[in-house]
Description:
Elements: H1 5-19, H2 27-34, H3 38-50, E1 54-57, E2 63-66, H4 75-83, H5 106-121, H6 126-134
Antiparallel strand pairs: 1-2
Helix pairs in contact: 1-2, 1-3, 1-4, 1-6, 2-3
Amino acid sequence: MRVSAKVDYALRAMAELAAAPPGFVTAEQLSAAQQIPPKFLENILLQLRHAGFVTSQRGAEGGHRLARPPAEITIADVIRALEGPIASVRGVRPDALDYGGAARGLREVWLELRASMRGVLEQTTLADVVAASRDD
């Protein structure tokens, strides 16, 4: 699995929001805390807002915060919102592939891989990520 910079930055920013005290966190604070390029972060936050994961407020007391509790947002939710399906082969869902001959068994490999990735990503929430960082 290849994790894009966009997904990595989004998850890092959302972990910061999940760990923050109640209230709003500015994009500048998120950018500084996770060393995310500010312009890239602004675009990511906009996508996360459109997907319903983040809310924002303008003004002196404004910023961003999670739209739902961190225990209700999985890593898989964020990946799907930003990039679509969790696993694909050349942009095709594994269950839609049809190989012939000696490669026929590859379809099952891709299906098993997708199931394994989903198992981890759908069961891991932002709350889990933040809790693990506090255990260090």
